[in-house]
Amino acid sequence: MYSNYKDNKYKNKVPNKIKSFFMYVLFAVSFLCIGAGLYKLYDDIDTSKYVNNTQMQRLSGEQSIVAEKEEKSTSDMIQEVIPTVVGISKLKNNGTSIFLQDSVTKLGLGTGVIISDNGYILTNQHVSGSKYSNCYVTLENGEFYNGNVVWSDSDLDLAIVKISAMGLDYINIGDSDAVKIADKVYAIGNPIGLEFQRTVTSGIISGLNRTIKIDEENKSSYMEDLIQTDATINPGNSGGPLINEKGEMIAINSVKITSAEGIGFAIPINIIKPVIEKMITENNFEEAYIGIFAYDKGVIPYLDNSLEFDRGIYVAQVDVGGPSAQSGLKIGDIITRIDNLEVDTMSDLRNYIYTKKPEDVVNLSIIRNDKEINVQVKLGKK
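Given the sequence above, the corresponding structure tokens read:
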């Protein structure tokens, strides 16, 4: 009997242990599930809403410091460039004449930029006058000089003026071929006279390789390969620099379309680099002359809608008796190469000729009557 009781007692204890084990397992699983749920709920909460005021003030302060540094950097850069900008007048300034009505037209007021420490200044030809003419230059510190135009090109509307001065601040020259649409730029103009502060306007590059038509003195001409900007360019700013965010001059401000707001144009600096380098290093630039003028394909629709070509430049003028005429070039020829350089703009051709000297011989590849021929031209002296 005792034996039966003992057996029944142990039989009852076994199920109770099993039940307890399963209860512990169930509790552990439930705890883990509840913990995971709470973690997921916390993870989904947008904690940024609960950033305290101190954290927000710190973040705002850091942003303000960054903006202040950028503003100071731009201001410092502009301040370094300003001493290189000069005023240019065709007539001698008496200190009060700049207040005359329409003084820009009456005095020929404009701007120039110093490109060397020994007094070479780059500007527009319509500001300084043509080669061998004289003009008057006022530096940022008020010093006044007589200027002599030592080089000019009417097609480019560019000129180089020399003054007798040494140790001048001069601008850094950039690479206009590296310019891209929407790059930040600054235009600096300096109407002559101490009564006016230097004018700085900002904007972006809004177009490249632009061609515009100029009507003056009952004739039309075209300026090609221009940089377009929405930085404000006023008449007195002609000849001043267009600079990038590094303070490098990438172009010379030249023309403004008066019938449209926010459209200004500047001449890419790379076009004139060979002339600047020779003038500074040799104090002289003996310009080679090819004796033609050609248009880019973008200009052709203005001239003749029936003309079509995919590459090269269209010869529109040939100087009778000039080097090209003597070599047999004709109006209507399309120049595709000069030596080993492909030519797609008149600027390409002009820039290459600037690297040559009078008496050098160049080889032109041209298309005439749908046939490609080669012509050798011995360059003359301009």
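The chain is about 30% helix and 35% strand. Try to locate this feature in the token string yourself.
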